[in-house]
Amino acid sequence: MRVVIAEDSVLLREGLVRLLADAGVETVATVGDGPGLLGIVQEHRPDLAIVDVRMPPSFTDEGLRAALAVREAVPGTPILVLSQYVEERYATDLIGGGAEGVGYLLKERVADVAEFIDAVRRIAAGGTVIDAEVIGQLLGRRRGGDPLRDLTPREREVLGLMAQGLSNGEIARDLVVTEGAVEKHISSIFMKLDLQPAQGGHRRVMAVLAYLGHRES
Asked: Residue positions of the PTM 4-aspartylphosphate (predicted)?
């Protein structure tokens, strides 16, 4: 497996390179800022890009914007975002384009080397790894037990396709139903998951997060 790393902390960057090498994963290039990420991805076409959210010059969302640019310019590139804290807009923007080949982990998880390497391999293979703390905070920890318990089998099926990044029209074609039927299922999913219209376009992402959290539990 070949990876690239965008991380401004030299210590963490070199630590990641060493951890990956010990697991047989080759780091083909590293950069210390967001803008450099797109260039090394286009040059090396890695199996995975590991990206810090906050990097120079403003230390706000450079890494996220770089990751989104990579997903647009080189579709299908698996991305693992590392963040110091849970930040809602970063997770929702990242997952909004489809959850396949996407990871969002808190940096403290790197300390569990086996778990981190497992996440790296799963994301590179097209899987999804979202930190449980991220899911818990984004969903407000307001639902106990199974958040999908009230969904019908068809609604769970629709939600699973949403998690793959499919549009309503694509879901309709996949299930051989009308787009109107899909819209009704999605409205019912939002209602049962207590996702309010005031949450706007984030409702779809929040529903996917609930699905991912259920799947990982």
From this structure: 52
Is-contact 4 50, C-beta < 8 A? yes
How many helical (H) and strand (E) elements, i.e. helices and strands, does the chain have?
10, 6
* Cα distance between residue 205 and residue 97, in whole Å: 9
What does the pLDDT look like over 127-176, one tens digit per residue?
A: 888 887 777 666 655 555 567 888 999 998 998 888 777 889 999 999 99
Please state the φ and ψ torsions of residue 83, each to the nearest 5 degrees: -140, 150
Phi, psi (rounded to 5 degrees) for 195? -100, 110
> Do 58 and 158 belong together in one domain?
no
| Element (DSSP H or E) covering residue 11 | helix 10-22
- The enclosing domain of 59 has a CATH number of 3.40.50.2300
The parent domain of residue 175 ranges over 153-216
In whole angstroms, give the CA distance from residue 8 to residue 60.
13
Using DSSP's 3-state secondary structure scheme, residue 50 falls into strand
Q: Domain check: are 160 and 114 in the same one?
A: no
Preceding amide of 57 cis, omega within 30: yes
Q: How many CA atoms lie within 13 A of 19 on its CB side?
A: 20
Q: Model-level pTM?
A: 0.73
